[in-house]
Request: fold
Amino acid sequence: MSTAVAVAHQANEEWRQPSRGIVGMACLIAAESAIFIIFVVAYIFYTGKSLTGPTPREVLELPIFSTICLLSSSITVHFAVHELRASKVRLSAWWLAATVLLGSIFIASTAAEWYKLIYHDGLTIRTNLFGTTFYSLVGLHASHVIAGLIMLGLALIFTLMGKVNQSHAERLEVLSIYWHFVDAVWVVVFTVVYILGR
Amino acid sequence: MEQKSEAGHNAVHMPSPTVWPMVLAMGLTLIITGMVTSAAVSVLGLILSLASVIGWFREVLPHEAHQMVDAVEEEIEISSARKSIDRLPIDPMHRKLVPLEIFRITTGIKGGIAGGIAMIVPATIFSLLKYHSFWYATNLMAAGGFVSWAGQSDQFLAQFHLEGLLAALVIHTVASVLVGLLYGAMLPMFPRWPILTAGFLAPLLWTGLLFSTLEFISPVLNERISWFWFIPSQIAFGLVCGFVVNLQAKVRTPQFQALPFALRAGLHGAIGEAGDETHPKDGKA
Amino acid sequence: MVTQTPVTSIAGHAPASQHGSRAFDVVYDWITTVDHKKIGIMYIVYALIFLVIAGIEALLMRVQLAVPNNTFVSPQSFNRLFTMHGTTMVFFVGMPILFGFGNYLIPLMIGARDMAFPRLNAFSFWISAFSGFLLYFSYFAGSGLYGAGTAPDVGWFAYAPLTARVFSPGHSTDYWTLSVLLSSIGSLGTALNIVATTLSMRCPGMKLSRMPLLVWLYFVTSCIAFIAISPLSAAQIMLVIDRYLGGHFFDTQAGGSAVLWMHFFWIFGHPEVYILVLPAFAFANEIIPVFSRKAIFGYPAMVSATVGIGFISMGVWAHHMFTVGLGPGANAFFTLATMVIAVPTGIKIFNWLATMWGGNIHFSTPMIFSIGFLFQFLVAGLTGVMLAAAPFDWQLGNSYFVVAHFHYVLVGAILFMIFAAFYYWYPKMTGRMLSERLGKWHFWLFVIGFHLTFDFMHIPGILGMPRRIYTYEADRGWAIWNMIVSSGAIFQTIATLIFVYNLVVSYFKGAVAGPDPWDAWTLEWSTSSPPPSYNFAKTPTVESRRPLWDLKHPEEPDTQYE
Ligand code: HEM
Ligand SMILES: [Cu+2]
Reply:
């Protein structure tokens, strides 16, 4: 008997496997979800347990506008991938730019919210349990938004530099999955912090 | 990397070595180390991390860096020193394929549900005879789930409680279905005396297990349970469940499909007969 | 048969350069490598180094406890010793060594050329390695209680509020938190890589239902890792927020809860023990069939039992917290859930036994270690089921009985299977066989030492000896048992030294292995030993679960039966 492996009958069916990029991103999302779940559990566990004020009801306002911005950025990034698939690079760049813009608005309004909380309402991470859990949960989410923005920004820059073409559509798709995830987390955070927690 | 030049080359794409993953790891570690030593360390870590992120990016974008490696096809003979295989003296198959026939999963569920319903009869009789109440047995079962019921009187347990009914229903259904599934899986293994095994042995074993552990699982239940009545209700379950399970048709497993035609057609008997002990050696499935 | 001459150095041939020494080239080659085999070997070597370090710590503790009222080490050092021993063994020995074998074997077994993300793979290794160094750097730099510069001393589960700034000033606890946090980045990276590799890199014909069981088990382990390790990271981040930013997560003064930390830790902690034990099962799944000369019994049952264990292991964490007082509902739930785990575990044990049943068993070193594993794992599972009964646990929780239980698993099962894996795959990794004679010495000495230590460790536990005490009075009746326990450590030390000696000497002098020394059936044995960097010159194609069996026995291939 000789060489290599296995009786090569014929590999008649086509051999297909999932893309490693998407599998990798799914794994990352599973791991990140577990992190967020723990923070959300801590938030829920500690709602109403602060020994001193201020309480969520006193200081939190519903961030409706920024929420709309963030959620609609999911749609724009979807179109960016869609257009890149169809080899329409310019159009894809526009959609990407819109995504980055919407994401930035979200971050800016979070920053404004924190500024108000810290300087007007005197709520810091040290103030009470509400402060601790609020800043860490919302901050954890915001840091994910920032990471996503940096990567989307890079993608935008590369696109504008003309280095991106249809063959990169899958990578952009992987990135867009991450972005959808960040948005989905916001829905949970929003519900828990701004609706149930108040 | 091996690079021999011989006949039979083909070039293989392999990712090229890179130092950046290591530098990035070091950078991140230094950033963190700064938190327990001094900020200068963090700064150094930050510089390293940024440099390596850029370096890494440039390696994978727009295209991953590759190097071509010459793959040398070596003659590697794959053969076994053990050419002789012990054959089974009886079985023309050389391999034991088990099981050939099994019950469907739904069979077990059906049996469990039927048994669960049958069990209610003795339990209710017990409840009516001893406490003159239809609900006593139900509440007793539910009590495991309610801490506050531990100290309640018999009278309380004899009344109707909706949450008690619901909890008992859940506990009873889950347990019955699980045991039913077990019956579905196990009965084909003991084909000899189905009434004895399914109807009596299994319930008695189960009762024994419960008798010794119930104290820890549900102290309330343990205090008041009447083992004398418990056994008939278990036997009712076993008989009905076993009966229902055995009524259903068995299905053939893929192992059966793998048998040669003559065996499947029943021309050679003696496949998978109970007690047909085989001693496969060297490479039997 | 063409015998392979072993490649002289597993470092491979760095392109010969005129300037610069050859040593530098070799080092540079290893630092920059993205080859899964080299990364696997680095993981293993690094874990072995930490194994020796943590082993020495254990030895020091046993010397201290051998006789009553001993003053061999101070109480403070004793606390540091058990903290560092536990942390090291779990995070810097167990996980890296298992990931190392996984890294090395998975691509070879599924006929791939490398992992799915080779650079991420290198990154994960290095960050785990550096985090280990960071932890041990604390011995030189961490300022602990009252400025005593030194290592963490809060125990491997670091219960709050002991970890709060007030009770643990200085940085010793920070070293623990930060290094474990870093290492979990590495673990998550490797787990991700393993999942992506198994799903996306299989060679043609390697359906999921044909993958070697080892690959299946690593796949499940990695999935558990995502859901288990992340909660730990989250809890560590909270602890860092408490300690650095003045947060109150675990600050009982401000309404924070210490029990919440316990929950978070054990939500990680229990699945973690399965992350450690599943790879050991994985080795057994490969080794036992080959040395019984039979295919594994009940492949689908094995896979589903593994998946079942994965799910159940998520729902049992509070059996570590019975003594907290969870209430009867939770006690009953966690007692039952824990006992349920014994069912899929039992299925596995029976399948291994059925595999051996009627087989033509070869008692080579890998196999005798596996047989030891079978018995010892059984006993460990039994003490586990005992502890799972809440009232029993109220008596024995936090005693040496618990220590004996989990060392029975960690040493008796996991370490034994790691040794078995060394004897089995060392020929593939280096091209040389390990000495069988030394292997037998290793095995018997280790078995004797193991049983002396860990069988007898149950007894002081039952007699009421709490864990983590640095010494005890002579009149407690524990002295004789502790003496026996400590004496077992001597045997284990000698056995380990023999093992390390065997590893080193066989590398140079061992018998040449050839590609397939065990007459095995999985793909890694179809390429040379050690394999070339590209693993397979031609990507293999498989048609059954045992591709090499099909080749060796063309008259009766497995393909007929699938
Ligand atoms: C049938 C399987 C098992 C059962 C029922 C079981 C049960 C238990 C229980 C109830 C405890 C808590 C004891 C206490 O703290 O009072 C415990 C502790 C422990 N078990 Fe297991 N166990 C099983 C298997 C394993 C396995 C496979 C491993 C490791 C791979 C393991 C490792 C541990 C460890 C490390 C601890 C102690 C943690 C600590 O307190 O530091 N167990 N086990
Ligand atoms: Cu556990």
In short: Confidence is low (pLDDT under 50) at residues 1-18 of chain C. Residues 37-561 of chain C form a domain with the Cytochrome C Oxidase; Chain A fold (CATH 1.20.210.10). The pocket of protoporphyrin IX containing FE (ligand 1) is lined by residues C 157, 273, 276-277, 319-320, 338, 341-342, 345, 381, 384-385, 387-388, 393, 397, 402, 405-406, 409-410, 414 (CB under 6 Å).
